[in-house]
Amino acid sequence: MVFYLIGLGLGDEQDITLRGLETVRWCARVYLEAYTSVLPVDVARLERQYGQRVMLADREMVEDGADDLLHGADTSDVALLVVGDVFWATTHQDLWLRARRRGIECAVVHNAGIMNAVGVCGLQMYRFGETISLVWFTERWRPTSWYPRLAANRQRGLHTLCLLDIRVKEPTEESLARGKPVYEAPRFMSVAEAAQQLLQVAAWRRERRNGQANPTNDAEAPEPYCACAEAYTAQTLGIGLARAGQATQQILVGTLEQLARAELGPPLHALIIPGELHALEAEFVATLPQVSGRQ
Amino acid sequence: MVFYLIGLGLGDEQDITLRGLETVRWCARVYLEAYTSVLPVDVARLERQYGQRVMLADREMVEDGADDLLHGADTSDVALLVVGDVFWATTHQDLWLRARRRGIECAVVHNAGIMNAVGVCGLQMYRFGETISLVWFTERWRPTSWYPRLAANRQRGLHTLCLLDIRVKEPTEESLARGKPVYEAPRFMSVAEAAQQLLQVAAWRRERRNGQANPTNDAEAPEPYCACAEAYTAQTLGIGLARAGQATQQILVGTLEQLARAELGPPLHALIIPGELHALEAEFVATLPQVSGRQ
């Protein structure tokens, strides 16, 4: 029997493929992976469309052994539905390997993910460099390993897709210290927060160059102070992309300074930092909604 | 009214999304873009599934003005179906812009493309660098601008997706010189041909370092002789991916030397050159079919 990973695409219950729908309908059990992304519709809508009960698979279920998830997949078909495409998160590759190790056959039904949706910004897909992830800074943890990656992309004239932090069923730092997890409310980083963080790091680099005291612990976060050239300034162009591939999708072009004050509504958000724009790309970007109100 | 660009996904008529199918059914005219990729099934199968006549849009129709394609799109809905996702080829962005310039509203229905399908090789999507395109060398034209890009990806430890040449309705060089186009038979570069071309360029670089006469005109193709470090050797690992996302999909892992002799069957093919493999990636790649027969 087969363990299926099935991409749902970016929108709602209408974005599954015919192949995906057919597969879901014949599976004995169907799970929805509900923590690396967020489904913009109610699970009940999926169930009505699929004619199948859809169970939520949370972080613990997917990551910790996956015994429940894979139980019986050697004797009947089991599906895990994933928002977007199936292989964006390490989690799903890990799950695939664990299933294979148990001798369970695995199959995939692909669908569109954020990397497809980003095409609506008019940037060439093959001119994107390494994707980076921005996570919220805390008092103790300010990961900036993305900085030299972004700088390297920019130096090569490449576009950068910045994936923004998603915190679903994350234990609080205090509760972890006490050994009994208490979960934070779900949070999704906005384009404005991402732009603010980029500007914050640029400010830290300036302070450092000026010999001022540094607010971060270099040993924990050495990267923004690496010798690489500045990756961007407050005037660097960014493209905010909210709810990509959904009916309420919103795109906004502006400088990082402008985007730091922009409001793009409900999650998920992504930030794209274009590299050098070819003529066609520049023309396309000029047709997108601009912070300044021009279009 | 609306001009829709609708991704068909990578397989057959079952890979369209429910949203895509619904959209196709209400459109007044439906075209299939049939030259930047190749549909693995007969158009008649699409027509049966969609309950709509599907007209082929060839290169001239899509690129030269698009008058026929967009005719009437201001008064009735028109769809262009694209194999994979819609925004991989510059062509489709160009078409979108031309429609917008005529005041026609445009919309997109995303689907999986090669960048999604590549996930089945177990490499992390966010660790891919710039995508490169390999085209067949001719006597007069040996474009190698991909070399420094591949080298830069490799230097940063990033994976590289190599898209392989597709020649559909290409006029022959002789016929162009005579001013009356005669078209070549469709050709699709195989993983073996791609690996052979990589090895050929490595050999040219070696000859050049050894001061030997150079078979190419440096002014036309300076890149493989740029000062960048060697991007790969014959022993570099590659992953051949044939018919990605289709039922007959085939994956083969081997050195470039091994892949240069590999047979992966019908098109389309893609070649992936992994960068540094993280532990999970290495474990996943080890489970894939290997040229050596190990798995």
TrEMBL record, chains A, B:
<dbReference type="Pfam" id="PF00590">
    <property type="entry name" value="TP_methylase"/>
</dbReference>
<dbReference type="GO" id="GO:0017183">
    <property type="term" value="P:protein histidyl modification to diphthamide"/>
</dbReference>
<feature type="binding site">
    <location>
        <position position="85"/>
    </location>
    <ligand>
        <name>S-adenosyl-L-methionine</name>
    </ligand>
</feature>
<dbReference type="GO" id="GO:0141133">
    <property type="term" value="F:diphthine methyl ester synthase activity"/>
</dbReference>
<comment type="function">
    <text>S-adenosyl-L-methionine-dependent methyltransferase that catalyzes four methylations of the modified target histidine residue in translation elongation factor 2 (EF-2), to form an intermediate called diphthine methyl ester. The four successive methylation reactions represent the second step of diphthamide biosynthesis.</text>
</comment>
<feature type="binding site">
    <location>
        <position position="10"/>
    </location>
    <ligand>
        <name>S-adenosyl-L-methionine</name>
    </ligand>
</feature>
<protein>
    <recommendedName>
        <fullName>diphthine methyl ester synthase</fullName>
        <ecNumber>2.1.1.314</ecNumber>
    </recommendedName>
</protein>
<dbReference type="InterPro" id="IPR014776">
    <property type="entry name" value="4pyrrole_Mease_sub2"/>
</dbReference>
<dbReference type="InterPro" id="IPR035996">
    <property type="entry name" value="4pyrrol_Methylase_sf"/>
</dbReference>
<dbReference type="InterPro" id="IPR000878">
    <property type="entry name" value="4pyrrol_Mease"/>
</dbReference>
<feature type="domain" description="Tetrapyrrole methylase">
    <location>
        <begin position="3"/>
        <end position="168"/>
    </location>
</feature>
<comment type="pathway">
    <text>Protein modification; peptidyl-diphthamide biosynthesis.</text>
</comment>
<comment type="similarity">
    <text>Belongs to the diphthine synthase family.</text>
</comment>
<feature type="binding site">
    <location>
        <position position="269"/>
    </location>
    <ligand>
        <name>S-adenosyl-L-methionine</name>
    </ligand>
</feature>
<keyword id="KW-0808">Transferase</keyword>
<feature type="binding site">
    <location>
        <position position="164"/>
    </location>
    <ligand>
        <name>S-adenosyl-L-methionine</name>
    </ligand>
</feature>
<dbReference type="InterPro" id="IPR004551">
    <property type="entry name" value="Dphthn_synthase"/>
</dbReference>
<keyword id="KW-0489">Methyltransferase</keyword>
<dbReference type="GO" id="GO:0032259">
    <property type="term" value="P:methylation"/>
</dbReference>
<feature type="binding site">
    <location>
        <position position="244"/>
    </location>
    <ligand>
        <name>S-adenosyl-L-methionine</name>
    </ligand>
</feature>
<dbReference type="InterPro" id="IPR014777">
    <property type="entry name" value="4pyrrole_Mease_sub1"/>
</dbReference>
<keyword id="KW-0949">S-adenosyl-L-methionine</keyword>
